[in-house]
Amino acid sequence: MSMTVQGIIARSQGAPVEQVDVVIPDPGPHDVIVRIQACGVCHTDLAYRDGDIEDAFPFLLGHEAAGIVERIGDEVTHVAEGDFVVLNWRAVCGECRACRKGQSHYCFNTHNASQRMTLSDGTELTPALGIGAFAEKTLVHEGQCTKVNPDEDPAAAGLLGCGIMAGLGAAVNTARIARGESVAVFGCGGVGMAAIAGAVLNGASTVIAVDIDDRKLARAQEFGATHTLNNKGLSTEEVASRIADMNGGVGTDVTIDAVGIMPTWQQAFYSRDFAGRMVMVGVPNLTDHVDVPAIDLYSRGGSVSPAWYGDCLPERDFPAYVDLHLQGRFPLGDFVSEKIGLGDIEQAFKTMKAGDVLRSVVVI
């Protein structure tokens, strides 16, 4: 039998979000209903609201979530009722060409629930990133549920579902930062801060945080940055020169662009050492173009790599980082800046845009 819960939707482009009744159908054979305990407010949700991702309104927002499996479909084997899970948007299929090559972190055919949740009038909702977790409960595919240690705070655990894993994975999985290497991270929001924490976790000796906000740079030091640089008003050449001054006269082994705009892309590109590695984890808009001379791309060597979801595998990575947090070895809980209610999400978007938080987390 279907059920009705409260959820937060974006009904039209740019309009304030609304708290409405959401109808959840009976789970299909491989679907599960998860009772949401906490869900982070991510910039991606704002992008959905503003129509910057797609035009499939209305959206059921929210995707950085943790909760308890409440009901399961007849053929579900991956989780059981009562499991504490973090939701993910990379439920790998195991059958596409990426999975067959052993590159499941690039799965091109990820699973979602077999049917849509709706408004009370029957209007189908598009769940953000296939999840839709700004709600008391949500419907997802069983593969979108990753079991983790139930001793973890749901507000912290849920953040692994997107932004924190994106930045952390960019450092650990994509850049593969090694002990003793030097790193510069451009942008010190939640994703960039997670990249800094990941660089520290992997043993980087020099970690340079770059941002235009001194408040964020001070916070970056709390996450392990050894140096900071305010790049406001600086040219690409000036940024690269100052980073080299902090790193013994050469560029860093790794640079990570956690912003996704072309000025920071170019600064990250030119701030790495020859044969250095650049990772792009900040998502660009639909109209930006990369503009560097081809000879520079060739002659500097190394690599320029995008990081999709931090190249993570949820089943491998989520439990590991929860355990590291519980052991006091990774500062996952420090990313939770404030806990709010469902009705506070519109204000949380404003707080996020002002740069006042790493993550606001909705607690239900």
Automatic annotation (TrEMBL):
Keywords: Metal-binding, NAD, Oxidoreductase, Zinc. It is an enzyme of class 1 (oxidoreductase). InterPro entries: ADH-like_C (IPR013149), ADH-like_N (IPR013154), ADH_Zn_CS (IPR002328), ER (IPR020843), GroES-like_sf (IPR011032), MycoS_dep_FDH (IPR017816), NAD(P)-bd_dom_sf (IPR036291). It comes from the Bacteria. Its EC number is 1.1.1.306. GO terms for cellular component: cytosol. GO terms for biological process: formaldehyde catabolic process. It holds the Pfam family ADH_zinc_N. Its cofactor is Zn(2+). GO terms for molecular function: mycothiol-dependent formaldehyde dehydrogenase activity; S-(hydroxymethyl)glutathione dehydrogenase [NAD(P)+] activity; zinc ion binding. PANTHER family: ALCOHOL DEHYDROGENASE (PTHR43880), ALCOHOL DEHYDROGENASE CLASS-3 (PTHR43880:SF12). Belongs to the zinc-containing alcohol dehydrogenase family. This is S-(Hydroxymethyl)mycothiol dehydrogenase. It comes from Corynebacterium poyangense. The lineage of its organism: Bacteria, Bacillati, Actinomycetota, Actinomycetes, Mycobacteriales.
